[in-house]
Amino acid sequence: MGAPRVVPYRPDRAVDTRQRLPYFLGISGQTVGAQGLAMHLVVIPPGARAEPHLHRGYETAIYVIEGRVETRWGEGLVHSVVSEAGDFLFIPADVPHEAINLSATEPARAIVARNDPAEQDRVEPYAPPNRRSDSEAR
Predict the structure, then answer these.
(1) What is the C-alpha to C-alpha distance for residues 22 and 54, in angstroms, rounded to an integer?
(2) How much is the average pLDDT of 31-35?
(3) How distant is the alpha carbon of residue 19 from its chain centre?
(4) Rama region for 136: left / alpha / beta (φ>0; ψ in -120 to 50; rest)
(5) How far apart are CA 81 and CA 101, in angstroms?
(6) pTM (2 d.p.)
(7) Computed from CA positions of residues 134, 91, 69, 40, in that sequence, does the dihedral angle turn out positive or negative?
(8) Which of the listed CATH numbers 3.90.870.40, 2.60.40.10, 3.40.50.300, 2.60.120.10 matches domain 16-120?
């Protein structure tokens, strides 16, 4: 086995995620062979929101680069915190949450880091009680 190496990586396009937000994949097991973390750039389009979800068994750290984002979290998504450019946000493992861009005209951007190199494999949808799905609302 060779010596460990430093691997540069530049994403060339956004990919859709289970959270239904565009991610620019950065560091992960898939892109550079990381064994203990993933780090990506997420862009929340104007007025958009993530699908409610949780990350089974791993933590999430977020650094907001631009915009204002409301994160609703906990059982029933009854708690809320607003983060803006320069803020860090920590989401413990297994906590249901959704992110909402509070601007109707500007995207929000954030760096997202997780302690799982294959983090998309364990994103689970979360259906808050008393909330209609998008298909029911139509």
Answers:
(1) 17
(2) 91
(3) 7
(4) alpha
(5) 12
(6) 0.85
(7) negative
(8) 2.60.120.10
Residue identified by tokens 């995207």 is 107
Q: Mapped to the 3 state alphabet, what secondary structure does 5-36 carry?
A: CCCCCCCCCCEECCCCCEEEEEECHHHHCCCC
> 3-class DSSP state for residue 40?
strand
The separation between CA 53 and the C-alpha centre of its own chain, rounded to angstroms, equals 10
Does the pLDDT of residue 66 top 80, yes or no?
A: yes
What is the reported pLDDT for 108?
98
Compute φ and ψ for 137, nearest 5 degrees.
-75, -20
Rounded CA separation 70/58 (Å): 21
Backbone angles phi, psi at 126, to 5 degrees: -130, 125
Domain parsing of the chain, residue ranges: 16-120
Q: How far is Cα 39 from Cα 114, in angstroms, rounded to an integer?
A: 6
